């Protein structure tokens, strides 16, 4: 049985869209469709119902997908064992991170996993924690590092907690709020807010600290692109709710101001901390490369 065709089966199962699945497989839609048709012909069953509007798994398709995942996982484990015999100097590791992860920490991990002369291939997905959770469940990645508080009690996962990231509310240095008058909670509500997507409890904690109603928060933009949010922060009167590391360079240069600090609000360091964790699937043995990456991460918190 051709494992590549089974991988195409799993891609189409995840996307339920031939064009998107073909793109992920780095194939033309025609070639990808031919691969699925060949698999159906070899198995002698129809795996997908498709018409001009949608694609859906058949009952037989659902059963075969479960077996296909097992076969792909077994083939991957075999490759892992071969890689281990080669001294971790070759192989592939796929994992995910959210933008909570500092770039310098990620670069140091890459240097550890790809020393000079190695043939290790890394596939790193940068995404929101919910998307990383789905990638982990689909076994496209072996672990991820991100916000993970909702997963702590979920038996499907093993969650290794990491140090939390301090967060706050920021504005540009020339913002009208810094005109010398008192920065009151009411004045903060006069300007639009933006933020990266994270658990609603973070905003609720801020509201509690500022003694304002969460329903009043003027959040006008949520976005996973930190670069866009930083540009808008520097070029407008928007207030940005995010973790400090995301604007560390702008804070250091004086371009950006921490509003609670400027307002003289006494806030404990953990008040707006965003929890972070390394998450992997329960009941799964990590590949040697993934185990090495996990050990490095936990030792370099």
From TrEMBL:
It holds the Pfam family HTH_1. This is LysR family transcriptional regulator. It comes from the Bacteria. Belongs to the LysR transcriptional regulatory family. Residues 1-58 form the HTH lysR-type domain. Keywords: DNA-binding, Transcription, Transcription regulation. It comes from Ectopseudomonas khazarica.
């Amino acid at each position: 049985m051709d494992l590549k065709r089974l991988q195409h089966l799993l891609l189409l199962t995840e996307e339920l869209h031939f064009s998107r699945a073909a793109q992920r497989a780095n194939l033309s839609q025609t070639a990808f469709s031919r691969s699925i048709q060949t698999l159906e012909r070899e198995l002698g069953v129809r795996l997908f119902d498709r018409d001009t509007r949608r694609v859906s798994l058949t009952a037989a398709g659902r059963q075969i997908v479960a077996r296909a995942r097992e076969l792909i996982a077994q083939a991957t484990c075999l490759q892992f064992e071969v890689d281990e015999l080669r001294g971790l100097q070759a192989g592939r590791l796929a994992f995910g991170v959210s933008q909570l992860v500092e770039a310098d920490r990620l670069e140091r991990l890459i240097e550890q996993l790809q020393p000079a002369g190695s043939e290790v291939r890394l596939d790193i997905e940068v995404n929101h924690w919910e998307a990383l959770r789905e990638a982990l469940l689909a076994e496209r990645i072996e672990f991820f590092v991100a916000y993970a508080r909702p997963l702590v009690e979920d038996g499907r996962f093993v969650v290794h907690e990491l140090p939390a990231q301090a967060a706050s509310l920021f504005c540009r240095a020339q913002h009208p709020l810094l005109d010398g008058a008192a920065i009151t909670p009411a004045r903060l509500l006069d300007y639009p807010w933006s933020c990266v997507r994270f658990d609603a409890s973070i905003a609720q904690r801020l509201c509690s600290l500022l003694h304002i109603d969460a329903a009043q928060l003027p959040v006008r933009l949520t976005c996973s692109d930190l670069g866009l949010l930083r540009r808008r922060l520097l070029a407008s009167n928007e207030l940005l709710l995010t973790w400090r590391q995301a604007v560390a360079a702008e804070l250091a240069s004086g371009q950006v101001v921490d509003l609670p600090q400027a307002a003289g609000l006494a806030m404990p360091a953990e008040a707006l901390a965003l929890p972070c964790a390394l998450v992997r699937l329960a009941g799964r043995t990590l590949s040697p490369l993934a185990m090495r990456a996990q050990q490095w991460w936990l030792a370099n918190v």
